[in-house]
Amino acid sequence: MKRVVLFIVTNLAVMLVLGIASRLLGVDRFLTANGLNLGALLGFALIMGFGGAIISLLMSKPMAKWSTGAQIINDSTDPTHRWIVGTVARFAERAGIGMPEVAIYEGEPNAFATGAFKNSALVAVSTGLLHSMNRDEVEAVIGHEVAHVANGDMVTMTLIQGVMNTFVVFISRVVGYFVDRVVLRNDRDGPGIGYMVTTIVMDLVLGVVAAIIVAWFSRQREFRADAGAAELMGRRQPMINALARLGGLDPGELPKTVATMGINGRPSGLMALFSSHPPIEERIRALQAPTAQ
Predict the structure, then answer these.
(1) Secondary structure string (H, E, C) spanning 24-37
(2) Which residue in 37, 135, 162, 181 has its CB near the most CB atoms, within 10 A?
(3) CA 43, chain centre distance (Å)
(4) 3-class DSSP state for residue 275?
(5) Residue 225's closest CA among 76, 112, 125?
(6) Rounded to whole angstroms, how far apart are CA atoms 3 and 9?
(7) pLDDT digits (tens, 9 = 90+) for 60-89
(8) Is it the case that residue 268 has pLDDT exceeding 60?
(9) From CA 246, how far away is CA 27, in angstroms rounded?
(10) How far apart are CA 220 and CA 258, in angstroms?
(11) CA-CA distances (angstroms) from residue 25 to 20, 30, 199, 246, 280?
(12) Are 38 and 19 in contact (CB under 8 A)?
């Protein structure tokens, strides 16, 4: 319920901020004078921005199962499966969340968590992870994913992505109208070529900026999930060992639908700005810091 309220409040806050800013800057008068309804534009930006993000969130679990071929093992009698499910159950109880669905999928060493609601999430580990790590390390990775769920990271990232999308759609169209009407002096009814070209260019440019901002937030929640795993296990060393092990393994590529919720990534150079995961070395240093929980 809190997440629903947060989503509604965030939507209203975005509308309010854009509306006030437009009025203070005189954008509303410019838009109205040139035949564009500010309220309609705000509504369009909100639907385009948050609509896609919330649909993606609601479809995250079935899409994750389909894209990775994950097999649910909650009711499996296999001893290894029972140990994994038991570990998830133990951590979920400690974190105060409902029991997630637990799955295994074929792939390189990695794991992920997803789902629209923290009391009905999905936690999945790869066969490569199970074959590459000892039990303490696997449990630390599972704790990391359960911490993501308990922290509400899926909803948080959806809200951030939705806010960014809304601002991109709104600003690009305002700039497009300005270029079309003021710079190119289009006085015909309806938008001209200047509006269409400018909007496309601004969508691309602002989209890059938004992606960098979203990635930064994503990297911060990775540090929190690492610390959460250490707290759930009652000690930091297993998570440190798991990260060190991951640093020497090829995590492969998760489908885009779950990539930001994976345990590992390989950011480098300029592309590190767009990475959802911090470098392994930074994550280990954060856990080793005296103030780490």
Answers:
(1) HCCHHHHHHHCCCC
(2) 162
(3) 23
(4) coil
(5) 112
(6) 10
(7) 899 889 989 999 999 999 999 999 999 999
(8) no
(9) 50
(10) 17
(11) 9, 10, 20, 50, 44
(12) yes
**CA gap 63, 221 in Å, rounded:** 22
Among this protein's residues, is 145 annotated catalytic?
A: yes
Distance CA 37, CA 31 (A): 7
By the 8 A CB rule, do 136 and 241 touch?
A: yes
Q: Which of 106, 145, 253, 281 is catalytic?
A: 145
34-73 core/surface letters (b: 16 or more CB in 10 A; e: else)? eebebeebbeebbebbbeebbeebeebbebbbeebebeeb
Interval 226-239 mean pLDDT: 94
- The 10 Å Cβ neighbour count of residue 286 is 18
CA proximity to 16, closest of 166, 182, 195, 126: 166
Tokens of 125: 């580990």
The end-to-end CA distance of the chain, in Å, is 28
CA Rg, the chain, in Å?
22
